[in-house]
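#lab-general

N.A. 3:47 PM
ok so I finally got the sequence cleaned up, no stray characters, all 133 residues accounted for. can someone with queue access submit it? mine expired

B.Y. 3:52 PM
send it over

N.A. 3:53 PM
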Amino acid sequence: MPNVLNDLDLVAIVAIIVTIGGPFIFAILIVWFYSRERLKRNKMQAELYAKAIESGQAIPPNLFEERKKKRINFLNTGIILMSLGFGIVLTVAMAEPKYLMKGVAGGMIPFMLGVGFLVIHFISKKRDAVDNE
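B.Y. 4:20 PM
back already:
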């Protein structure tokens, strides 16, 4: 019976599986580590609560409150991403001027993400001003 797969075919199949499956495995690992850490923190809080009840001590009212999430500074993130996109364009243009359009295409992704963050910053700033009134 002839060998259907040669070494090059096997390498190609493994490369495709790793390329497609790698990000999924990475995302699953991130979620797993995050949930494991959160479970550990919740378990420690529950043990502290049980010990406080057993010893008759007062329980702090904010023991089980979620930590306030840091508000992402959209202005800084937007400026950094816009600068990154502009830097990519300049680097490609200075390295090889004939590839300027490829540099523009590569730099537009972070640049437009930065513009989006700036829009979010100004919209949330206006929304906060309206909510505070």
